[in-house]
Amino acid sequence: MQKLFNEIASQNNDSTLKDFKDLKVEALDNFDLVFLGSACHHADLAPPVLKFVETIPESPKFKLAGFVTHSTYPPEGSDRHAEMFEQWGSKCSKTYEKLQTEKNIDYKSYFRCMGIPSKPIESFINAKIVTDDKEWAEYIEIVAKHPDEKDIENAKKFAKEIIKKC
Ligand SMILES: Cc1cc2nc3c(=O)[nH]c(=O)nc-3n(C[C@H](O)[C@H](O)[C@H](O)COP(=O)(O)O)c2cc1C
Fold first, then answer.
1. What is the pLDDT of residues 140-152, one digit of tens each?
2. Is the whole-model pTM more than 0.85?
3. Nearest-5° angle of CA 137, CA 143, CA 146?
């Protein structure tokens, strides 16, 4: 996740990287564009990020883009991956979109890619989601590599395109 933060922030000479834990929501008004990143937890943005976005006032001055890492497969690969993503990752984009409709935020788009889970989450996924041995062996090899070079490249492209649109 940190790699993604750094790459996205480096796409503009005039950017500031903030940990939202140290950030007051009012401070966002000092920016034209905010990239709000989160790990996916419980199929949605992580709880502290959800709490933070609730405090964003209506019709803020800044434009918003999102980015997310998730340990489930992205949906594009197969019906199984799509099903898993629907259950374990699909609320993230909906939460960003809700900010647009409910808070009248000028929301641009979001970026997502896989991110390696911690050991306890890995165990949870193996026990509850990817329980088949063959599927697990393939999954764990793949997820361990993310975010990979391609993800970082795609994140850079995403950030550049959003900045160009603003
Ligand atoms: C409490 C918790 C819940 C999680 N729930 C999900 C989930 O529902 N779907 C998913 O794809 N990943 C889930 N994950 C995995 C995280 O998305 C993954 O660890 C994270 O994207 C990796 O980035 P990080 O190293 O910056 O945390 C969860 C992780 C934690 C700690």
1. 999 999 999 999 9
2. yes
3. 155
